[in-house]
Write a structure and sequence with these properties.
Structural class: alpha/beta
Strand content: 15-25%
CATH class of the largest domain: Alpha Beta
Largest sheet: 8 strands, mixed
Number of domains: 2
Shape: globular
Radius of gyration: 25 Å
Number of strands: 14
Distance between the termini: 52 Å
CATH architecture of the largest domain: 3-Layer(aba) Sandwich
Oligomer: single chain
CATH topology of the largest domain: Alkaline Phosphatase, subunit A
Helix content: 25-40%
Number of helices: 15
């Protein structure tokens, strides 16, 4: 078998892409992310599968839309039939490891990972709190304020530094001894590894370690956007009301100074993440495996970060929380130091890892980022994000469309000509056909999410082509029921001037239900 790269996935929490250097930010220094982008491709149209943590991470783990994997909000379990990325990678012959912050993995629930060392700030006896209290017995929480909105203890004891150290410990042990730090041996001899490393930052609590102040230029940080709009969806109005004090709701301009202080701390946490990324890259280099390792850097979702009078993220369409950083470096077949505008997202991380591992079978609806960038995998024309059933949001390369189920409310923003997303175009007559098209896309994606159910004789060429546009590998998981039953039916189709071969795809698949199958029979003209 051809030698395959190791894979390191670094996933942060709530990072908006426009706040890091590879996406143009000049107010927070991110030299390590800049260097990572120079070694690979930066994806400019990457969105989250969901603007809430656990559902988005669930999409990474399963390759499915949120409506497909079932973990539709935080602390809700997956559907019982889900297959998880580590399980597939194990079958592909990889050593799978997960360290740091994760919504779904626990010491008791590894989802297939052969090695874990996980952060759980809520557990006073967990690994991180034990580590912290060994040095500082008085520590009582994972994030304590030093009185100046910074982490109370030195940076080597910061929770995300601990997560990073778990990653570098694994890299060092596996490179030197072929085992995880606890002695776990890969299920496959000489296996390449997949390492997930999760950071909580720059998510709340906004308590960066000291020493990062100079990495941020507070004068250049974009000013918080305020709004008094009333033409927004009902769910946005209600959330805006309960997420703000009444004073901040009616006079958001007065809240800007304190919110800019929060934004500065958010930027300092980004600088810390950047330093931790640098540590992981350096560990790969020090252990002589950097050139053999693909690195994927991304986030579960972005953050409005107090724009539009919203605190973080939620069921609304704004690009600062919908779009995410996505950088893939050191991947075979991928150009370096370039940007790609294909429609993609964290839903595609699993498909990317599996393609690198040599597993090309369908993984939900996930596609290879490398393949989309180099043209070997079809690019999307539209992509979807969900916040449970509160809203379904679609994007193409110009517009963001959101449908709010059960309210009849839609919104449409032109990101090119209205980059601040302040003008809702959905009610204008000249956009009615575009709105209609996006609504049809919502229905299509919901069919795909639940699992497409079509009698095979109804998978006519137009249906199959449209389905393959949105789910190119749909046949991998498609149940065949009721193909054309007789050669007589085939002949009638041909006589009508239609394609008589359109059910030929059924030949290579098991058939779960039928009233006869034409290609199982001897061909006879005028068959009754």
């Amino acid at each position: 078998m051809k030698k395959r790269n190791n894979i390191v996935l670094i996933l942060v929490d709530e990072m908006r892409p426009d706040f890091i250097g590879p996406y143009g930010a000049d107010f927070v220094r991110t030299p390590n992310l800049d260097a990572l982008a120079a070694e690979g491709t930066t994806f400019d149209n990457a969105i989250t599968a969901s603007t809430v943590c656990a559902p988005a991470r669930g999409a990474i783990l399963t390759g499915q839309f949120v409506s497909g994997h079932g973990a539709w909000t935080n602390d809700v379990p997956f559907n019982p039939n889900c297959t998880f990325l580590p399980q597939r990678l194990n079958k592909a012959g990889y050593m799978t490891a997960a360290v740091g912050m994760s919504d779904h993995l626990t010491p008791q629930r590894s989802l297939g990972c052969q090695y874990t060392s996980l952060f759980d700030g809520s557990d006073p006896n967990g690994k991180y709190m034990t580590f912290l209290k060994n040095a500082y017995p008085e520590a009582c929480r994972y994030a304590e304020n030093d009185g100046s909105s910074h982490f109370k203890y030195p940076e080597p004891y910061f929770y995300d530094r601990w997560c990073c150290d778990q990653a570098t410990d694994f890299i060092e042990h596996y490179a030197k001894y072929g085992t995880a730090p606890d002695g776990t041996v890969a299920e496959t001899e000489n296996a390449p590894f997949f390492l997930y490393c999760g950071f909580l930052s720059p998510h709340t609590p906004h308590l960066p370690p000291r020493g990062l102040e100079d990495a941020v230029d507070p004068v250049k940080i974009p000013t918080v956007l305020t709004t008094h709009r009333q033409d927004v969806a009902p769910v946005e109005k209600y959330r805006r009301a309960f997420l703000n004090s009444h004073e901040d709701l009616v006079n958001p301009e007065a809240a800007v100074p304190k919110r800019m202080q929060i934004r500065r701390l958010y930027c300092e946490l980004i600088a810390e993440v950047d330093a931790l990324v640098g540590r992981i890259v350096q560990s790969l280099k020090d252990n002589g495996i950097y050139e053999d390792t693909t690195i994927i850097f991304s986030s579960d979702h972005g953050s409005v970060n107090n724009d539009y009078n919203m605190v973080t993220k939620g069921p609304w369409p704004y690009k600062s929380q919908l779009f995410i950083p996505m950088i893939v470096a050191n991947a075979p077949g991928l150009q370096r130091n370039v940007h790609c505008d294909c429609l993609c997202g964290n839903l595609d991380i699993g498909g990317t890892a599996l393609a690198i591992a040599g597993d090309e079978a369908a993984f939900g609806v996930s596609r290879s980022l490398v393949g989309m960038a180099n043209g070997s995998v079809p690019q999307r024309t539209v992509n979807m994000s969900e916040f449970s059933d509160s809203c379904k949001t679609l994007v193409d390369k110009q517009y963001t469309f959101t449908y709010y189920p059960f309210t009849g409310k839609t919104c449409l923003y032109d990101r090119v000509n209205d980059p601040l997303e302040t003008v809702d175009l959905s009610g204008r007559p000249e956009y009615s056909e575009l709105v209609k098209k996006f609504l049809m896309d919502v229905v299509d994606f919901m069919c795909i999410a639940k699992g497409v159910r079509l009698e095979a004789h109804d998978v006519v060429p137009e249906v199959k082509a449209g389905l393959e546009m949105k789910h190119p590998k749909f046949l991998d998981d498609f149940d065949i029921a009721f193909p054309l039953s007789s050669w007589n039916e085939v002949d009638r189709i041909e006589e009508a001037g239609l394609d008589p071969t359109y059910n030929e795809f059924c030949k290579e698949k098991p058939i779960m239900a039928h009233y006869g199958v034409y290609f199982h029979k001897e061909r006879k003209k005028n068959e009754s």
